[in-house]
Amino acid sequence: MGRLCGKRQTISFTLYTDSYLFTRQATDLSFGISWKELEKQPDDILDLAENIARKKDLQLVICIDEFQNIMQFGNSDAFQQKLRSHWQNHQQVAYCLYGSKRHILRDIFSDPSKPFYKFGDLMLLDKIPESEWIVFLCRRFQDTGKTLLPDDARLIARLADNHPYYVQQLAQQAWFRTNDECNQDIVLSAHEDIVNQLSLLFANSTEKLSSFQINLLKAVLSGEKQLTAKDTLEKYQLGTSANVVRIKRGLIENEILDDTGEELSFLDPMYKYWLQKNFFKK
C-alpha cells in the first residue's frame, strides 16, 4: 500500500509479505524525489505503482484516504482528469478511494460533469453493528486484564451512535477510569467528560448558524419527518418549503447533518447530545 507522507518530496511504501502461514511481515521502503524533477515528469509518478507492479509481477491495491480533499486543489477538475487518464489504463493496480464526507464523495463519483464519474463501484458503508462493537470492546478490555460487561459495552456503542471514532474514544476513556471492572457510572462519566471537552467547539460552531438552521436542527432532534409540512414550518419557524431545502443543503455541506435518503441524521453524535442536553435545554 502506498501513501504520500508529510513532506511532498517523499513517497513511502509499506509492503506486506506472507512468509509463513500465520506470520505477516511488513517492510517499509522510502525514497526521496526532487520536487524540481517531479515537476518535469509528473506522469512518471502517476504510473509509478503500475510500473512497479508490472516489473515485479505483482497485483497492488493503492488506498487513498480522505479522497474528497482533492476538491480543494487548485484547478481540481483538471487534476482529476489527469489522474483518471492514467489510472483507467492500469491493469495490475486497483485503487480504493474513500473518505469521511459522503456528500462530497457522492458528487465526485456520481456527477456526470466530473472526471471520476462512474470510475468504479460506489459503496456506501453502514455503521458497524452494535452487536459487533459489544464483542470487540469486551474482548479488548479482557485482553488488558479488565472486565467490561456486554450491557456496558452496549451503552458505549449507543452513546456514540456506533460512530467508530467516538466508540473507541469513549471506550478508551472508560478504560482509563477502570481499575478492574467497568460499570455504567464509569461509562456515563467518561461520556460527560468528552462532551464537556468539546462544548466550547460546539458552542462556537452553533454561533455561526442562522436562526433558520438552528430551528431545523431542533425539528430534526424532535423527530420531525415531514420538514416541509405546513404544521412543521409554522411550529419551528422555518419559512417556506423552498427555504427548508436551502437550509438542509447548507447543514449537509457544513457536515452537521447527513442525508441517507431515508432521513436526516447528525454526523457527530456528541454534538447531537450537546444540543439536546445543553443548548436547547437552556
Question: What does the model show?
Answer:
The chain has 282 residues and is of the alpha+beta class. The protein has 3 domains: 2-110, no CATH class; 130-198, Helicase, Ruva Protein, domain 3, CATH 1.10.8; 209-279, Arc Repressor Mutant, subunit A. It has 13 helices and 7 strands. Helix 6 crosses helix 7. The longest helix is centred in the last third of the chain and has 24 residues, at 184-207. The protein is globular and about 60 Å long.
User: Span from first to last CA?
Assistant: 50 Å
Helicity level, as a percent range?
40-55%
Beta strand count: 7
Strands ordered across the widest β-sheet: 1-2-3
Observed structural traits:
282 residues, Helicase, Ruva Protein, domain 3, Arc Repressor Mutant, subunit A, 3-stranded antiparallel β-sheet, 7 strands
Q: Helices, strands, pairings?
A:
Layout (H helix, E strand, L loop, with lengths): L1 E3 L5 E11 L2 E10 L2 H6 L1 H5 L1 H9 L3 E5 L11 H12 L5 E5 L4 H9 L19 H14 L6 H10 L4 H14 L6 H24 L3 H11 L8 H6 L5 H13 L3 E3 L4 E3 L2 H11 L3
Parallel strand pairs: 4-5
Antiparallel strand pairs: 1-2, 2-3, 6-7
What's a concise summary of this model?
This protein is α+β, with helices and mostly antiparallel strands and 282 residues long. Helices cover 51% and strands 14% of the residues.
